[in-house]
Design brief:
CATH superfamily of the largest domain in chain A: Winged helix-like DNA-binding domain superfamily/Winged helix DNA-binding domain
Order of helices and strands of chain A: HHHHHHHEEHHHHHHHH
Helix content of chain B: 25-40%
Structural class of chain A: mainly alpha
Number of helices of chain A: 15
Oligomer: heterodimer
Strand content of chain B: 15-25%
Largest sheet of chain A: 2 strands, antiparallel
Distance between the termini of chain B: 98 Å
Shape of chain B: elongated
Number of strands of chain A: 2
Number of domains of chain B: 4
Shape of chain A: elongated
Strand order of the largest sheet of chain B: 5-4-7-8
Structural class of chain B: alpha+beta
Largest sheet of chain B: 4 strands, antiparallel
Largest interface: A-B, 99 and 73 residues
CATH topology of the largest domain in chain A: Arc Repressor Mutant, subunit A
Number of helices of chain B: 17
Chain lengths: ~300, ~575
C-alpha cells in the first residue's frame, strides 16, 4: 500500500494550514516549537487519512482538530514541565472526579485514576524513551472527553473482566478481533423465529440497533442513550416505542414468508418467548455481556415467564 | 413502553463479533458529535455489535451534559405540550407562592413600567399553542413571548403592585421551572421577576405573557446558563440582556430572559433534565472534594508495634473526627480526608498520648504515612477507669501487645494487667508527711500523688473478689463506702508494678499495674479481719507479703494477697 501519497498530501495541507493552526494552538507558550508541531500534525493526519482521502477531506479534518489541546497533550508527552503543570491544573481534579463517576466506588476510582495518571505521565519506558499515553491523543475530541474515554476503557478492561485485548498503547489502537462462542444449536422449531428476527433486525439502521442494544442489553437509561447519541431523551423514548411495534410486525411478516400462518406466527412470537431456553452463561460469555445484576433480572424474568 | 419480544433480545446478543474497536479519540469524537457522517456511521455500526464499546461511550459521558439539541434537533423540536404544561404548572405554583412574598418588597412603581405594560401587545388570537415562544423582537428591547393559556394561570389573580414593570412571561415561567430545584438565591429573584409581571398579569395573563428584555432572572441561573451554554457548546451563548436599572434585581439577568427562541425551547425542553444538570455542573466547579488517606504505624520506644492503639484525626478547622485502631501489626489507616490541617492523636493504654500536627494534601497523590512512637504512659495524666467485671479491656487491649505477651506470659500475673510491666523502670513509691501515697516515674525527680479511690473497684480483681467472698460482702461494701475518703497511708511496698499500700483503719490497697488501678483489699480470716492501722508492709515478692498493724497484728499472705492469715 502506498503510504507516500497520503503523507505528501497531508504534508502539503499541513504546510498550507500551519500558520493558522499554529496560531490557534498556542504551542509556543506551551513549549512546543513550530517545527515539532508541524511534525505532529503530519503524523496525526497520516494516521487518519488513507490513500483515498481527498484534499478537502484532509483539510476539513485538520480544521476540525482541537489543536490547542493537541499541542498541550503532545507537549506533556514530550516531558515539558510547564505543559505538565498546565495539564495538572486543568485536568487533575476532573480525572479523579470522572474516575469516581465511572467506578462509583472510592478505592477503585483512585486506583483507576492513579493508573491512568501514571500512564499519562509516562512512567513506562520503551527503548529507553518515556512513553506517555498522551502521545496517542490526536485532538479529534476534546482532551477532557478523551481522558474520560480512556478512563472508561481502562475500567471496562479491568473491572469488567472482559477478554478484550485492546491495549491502550498508541500503537495498538485497533482492537483485536475475538470470537464470541457459538450459541448452541436452536431447536428446529425456533429456527424460523430466529431467522425472522435476524432478518428484521438486519433491516434496521445501525443507530436503531444501538438504541435497542443499549436499552435492552446494557440496561442504559433513556437519558444516557440520548446523550450518547446526541438527541433528546424523548426521541429515544419514541424511537424505542416505534421499534418495538415495528419489529413485532416485521417478524410476524417474515415468519409468514417462511410458511407460517399469521396466527401461528403471532403465537410463535408470544409463546416461544417463554419457552426459550435462555442460556445465561452462554450469553454472558459473549462480548456484550450484561452487567452482573441484569443477569439476575433475566433469570428472574425467565423463571417468571411460564408462571 | 412496549417490550420487545425476548427473541429480539436474544438475537441482538447473538451478533457477529465486533472487530476493530474504535480508539479513544474516535469514541470521544463520536460522543461529542464531531465525527463526519461517514465515520459516524461506521462507529454506529460497530456499536450495534459491540457492548463493550457501548459501555465505554456511556461511561465516558460527562457528568450531566444536557442534550445538545442545537446540533441535532430533536424530531419535532418543539416542546411537547404535556411537558410544557408541567413546566408552567410548576412555575405557576412557584410564582403564586413567591408573588405574595415579594409583593410588598417592591411596591414602588414607576410610571415607565406602567406605560410599558400598557404598550404590551395582546396577541390573544394567535393559536400558538405549539409554539410557546415567539422570537424576540429586539426592536423595542422587549421580547414578546406568548404562552398558551395555561390553565394554571387563569386563577392567578395577582393584585397589581405597580412596579418597575418587569414582566415575565413564559420565559420567566420557564426560568422558574428551572429555578424550582434551586430555591435559594434563585427563588427570590425569580419571584421578583414574576412579581413584576403582576400588573400585566391581571389583564393579559390568560392571553399572553410578555417578557421584556430587562426581565430579571436570578443571578444564580446565569452562571448556569453560561455553563450550560459552554457545556453544550452552543454557539448561541448566554446573552446577558441590558438590565433595566429600575429594578434592582441582579444585573445578571439570565440568558433565559433573552435567549433566542430555540434556546428557550431547549431550556424548556430540559426543564426536566435541568434539575439534575445544573447542580452537577455547579458541584463540579464548587466542590473539588479530592479525598485522600493517611496511614501509619504506632510503635513503642523499642520499635515494637503497638496494636489496638487508637488514632484520632481531627481537622483543626472544623469539628468531627475520624478514628482508627491499629491492627495486630500496629498499622492504621484513615481514608476519605480532604486536604487540610489535622491533629492526629495516638493513644494506647499504658502509653503517653501523642499528638501530631498534620498538614495533609489530598492532591499529593501519595498516601501520607505517619509513625507514632509512644513512650510509656504517664499514667498520672490519663486515668483509666476499667469496668468492674472485665479486667480485660475490650476496647483497647492493653494487655495484648506482642512484646508484653511474649515476655510476661511466664510471669505469674494471671488476671492482672501486665501492660505496665513494659515500663522500663517501675515507679518509686513513698508516703509523704501527710500520709498521701505518692509515686515517681522518673526515678524520683518528681512525685505525684496517687488517688487510690479514683478507680476504686470493690471486689474487682481476683484478690479482693476472693476476699469479699470470704468476708461478708455487704460488710466489705459498707467498709468501702465508709472509706470513700482517701485514707491516710502509713506504709507502701512495691515489687515491680505490684504495689501494696496500707494505712489507717485497715485500709489496704493493691495495684498490679504500678498504680493505675487500685483495689481495696480486706484481709480476713476465720472471722477476724484486719482493722487496725497498717503501719508496715513488707513484700518479698509479689506473692509473699506481711502486714503489721498498730495493734500488733501481723497478717501474712502467700498468694499475692488473695488470702491472708493472721499470725
Amino acid at each position: 500500500m502506498s503510504s507516500t501519497k497520503p503523507i505528501s498530501a497531508v504534508q502539503s495541507v499541513v504546510n498550507e494550514l500551519l500558520a493558522d493552526l499554529h496560531a490557534k494552538s498556542g504551542c509556543e507558550k506551551i513549549g512546543l516549537t513550530r517545527e515539532s508541531f508541524s511534525v505532529i500534525l503530519c503524523e496525526v493526519g497520516s494516521k487518519h487519512a488513507s490513500a483515498a482521502t481527498s484534499e478537502t477531506e484532509i483539510r476539513t479534518f485538520f480544521l476540525s482538530l482541537r489543536v490547542d489541546e493537541l499541542a498541550l497533550a503532545r507537549a506533556c508527552a514530550a516531558g515539558v514541565n510547564s505543559a505538565w503543570e498546565i495539564f495538572l491544573t486543568r485536568f487533575r481534579e476532573k480525572l479523579y472526579l470522572s474516575a469516581l463517576r465511572i467506578a462509583r466506588e472510592d478505592s477503585a476510582a483512585r486506583e483507576l485514576a492513579d493508573t491512568l495518571y501514571a500512564d499519562l505521565y509516562g512512567t513506562n519506558t520503551r527503548d529507553g524513551q518515556r512513553v506517555s499515553k498522551l502521545a496517542s491523543y490526536t485532538g479529534r475530541g476534546s482532551l477532557e472527553g478523551w481522558l474520560r474515554t480512556v478512563l472508561a476503557q481502562e475500567y471496562v478492561n479491568r473491572y469488567r473482566r472482559t477478554k478484550r485485548l485492546v491495549s491502550l498503547d498508541e500503537e495498538s489502537e485497533e482492537g483485536v478481533q475475538f470470537q464470541a462462542p457459538d450459541p448452541d444449536p436452536i431447536p428446529a422449531a425456533d429456527q424460523r423465529l430466529a431467522q425472522a428476527t435476524d432478518e428484521a433486525l438486519a433491516s434496521l439502521p445501525a443507530e436503531d440497533r444501538v438504541v435497542l442494544s443499549a436499552y435492552y442489553l446494557d440496561g442504559r437509561t433513556l437519558a444516557e442513550i440520548a446523550r450518547m447519541l446526541g438527541v433528546h431523551e424523548s426521541t429515544i423514548s419514541r424511537k424505542l416505542d416505534k421499534l418495538a411495534k415495528a419489529l413485532r410486525k416485521q417478524i410476524v411478516a417474515a415468519l409468514v414468508r417462511r410458511g407460517m400462518s399469521r396466527r401461528q406466527a403471532e403465537e410463535a412470537l408470544e409463546v416461544d418467548v417463554r419457552d426459550l431456553q435462555l442460556d445465561i452463561r452462554r450469553s454472558l460469555a459473549q462480548e456484550s455481556s450484561p452487567p452482573a445484576f441484569s443477569e439476575k433480572r433475566v433469570e428472574a424474568r425467565v423463571r417468571e415467564g411460564p408462571g | 413502553m412496549q417490550n420487545v419480544p425476548k427473541i429480539v433480545r436474544e438475537r441482538l446478543k447473538a451478533v457477529a463479533p465486533a472487530v476493530n474497536h474504535p480508539n479513544a479519540d474516535v469514541l470521544t469524537a463520536f460522543a461529542e458529535q464531531s465525527l463526519p457522517d461517514r465515520e459516524r456511521a461506521g462507529v454506529l455500526d460497530h456499536l450495534a455489535r459491540c457492548g463493550d464499546c457501548r459501555d465505554i461511550v456511556a461511561l465516558a459521558l460527562p457528568a450531566t451534559e444536557p442534550v445538545q439539541t442545537t446540533v441535532r434537533p430533536a424530531s419535532g423540536g418543539w416542546l411537547t405540550w404535556p411537558t410544557l404544561r408541567w413546566g408552567f404548572v410548576a412555575a405557576g405554583v412557584v410564582a403564586i407562592a413567591a408573588f405574595g412574598l415579594l409583593e410588598y418588597q417592591q411596591r414602588p412603581a414607576t410610571m415607565a413600567a406602567k406605560q410599558r405594560s400598557q404598550s404590551v401587545e395582546v396577541a390573544a388570537n394567535e393559536p400558538k399553542k405549539s409554539t410557546p415562544f415567539a422570537p424576540i423582537s429586539p426592536t423595542q428591547g422587549k421580547a414578546k413571548l406568548e404562552s398558551p393559556s395555561a390553565p394554571a394561570f387563569d386563577s392567578f389573580d395577582a393584585p397589581s403592585p405597580a412596579d418597575s414593570g418587569k414582566k415575565t412571561g413564559a420565559r420567566a415561567d420557564a426560568a422558574l421551572a428551572r429555578a424550582v430545584p434551586w430555591a435559594g438565591p434563585f427563588h427570590g429573584n425569580a419571584s421578583n421577576s414574576l412579581r413584576h409581571g403582576g400588573p400585566s398579569a391581571a389583564n393579559q395573563w390568560p392571553q399572553q405573557n410578555m417578557i421584556q428584555n430587562q426581565a430579571v432572572a436570578p443571578a444564580a441561573p446565569n452562571p448556569f446558563a453560561k455553563q450550560q451554554a459552554a457545556g453544550r457548546g452552543m454557539s448561541a451563548g448566554a446573552q446577558v440582556p441590558t438590565v433595566n436599572q429600575t429594578v434592582e434585581v441582579s444585573a445578571e439577568a439570565p440568558a433565559m430572559a433573552t435567549e433566542s427562541a430555540s434556546e428557550a425551547r431547549q431550556a424548556q425542553d430540559q426543564a426536566a433534565a435541568l434539575p439534575s444538570a445544573n447542580p452537577h455542573a455547579d458541584v463540579t466547579r464548587a466542590k473539588p472534594a479530592v479525598l485522600g488517606q493517611i496511614s501509619g504505624y504506632v510503635v513503642d520506644p523499642s520499635g515494637a508495634v503497638v496494636p489496638d492503639a487508637r488514632i484520632t484525626v481531627t481537622p483543626t478547622a472544623t469539628g468531627g473526627s475520624a478514628t482508627a485502631v491499629t491492627n495486630s501489626q500496629g498499622a492504621w489507616l484513615i481514608a476519605g480526608l480532604p486536604t487540610g490541617r489535622y491533629k492526629a492523636q495516638a493513644e494506647a493504654p499504658g502509653f503517653k498520648t501523642t499528638v501530631l500536627d498534620v498538614n495533609y494534601d489530598a492532591n499529593a497523590n501519595q498516601p501520607s504515612m505517619y509513625r507514632f512512637t509512644l513512650s510509656p504512659g504517664s499514667v498520672a495524666e490519663t486515668v483509666e477507669v476499667s469496668s468492674a467485671e472485665a479486667q480485660v479491656q475490650t476496647e483497647t487491649a492493653g494487655v495484648s501487645g506482642p512484646i508484653t505477651n511474649r515476655q510476661f506470659s511466664q510471669a505469674p500475673v494471671s488476671g492482672r494487667n501486665v501492660s505496665q510491666l513494659t515500663t522500663v523502670s517501675p515507679p518509686r513509691w513513698t508516703i509523704n508527711t501527710s500520709g498521701a501515697l505518692q509515686r515517681s516515674i522518673d526515678q524520683g525527680k518528681s512525685w505525684q500523688t496517687v488517688d487510690v479511690n479514683a478507680n476504686a473497684v470493690v471486689g474487682a480483681n481476683f484478690s479482693s473478689a476472693v476476699t469479699t467472698s470470704r468476708a461478708k460482702v455487704k460488710g466489705a461494701d459498707k467498709a468501702l463506702k465508709r472509706e470513700i475518703a482517701t485514707p491516710t497511708f502509713r506504709a507502701v511496698a512495691a515489687t515491680g508494678s505490684d504495689v501494696w499500700a496500707g494505712g489507717s483503719s485497715g485500709a489496704l490497697y493493691h495495684s498490679a499495674d504500678a498504680g493505675n488501678h487500685w483495689t481495696r483489699v480486706f484481709p480476713a480470716a476465720a472471722g477476724a479481719s484486719l482493722t487496725g492501722d497498717i503501719i508496715s508492709l513488707e513484700f518479698a515478692d509479689i506473692q509473699h507479703g506481711r502486714a503489721s498493724t498498730s495493734t500488733s497484728e501481723v497478717w501474712i499472705t502467700t498468694d499475692g494477697g488473695q488470702t491472708w492469715q493472721k499470725q
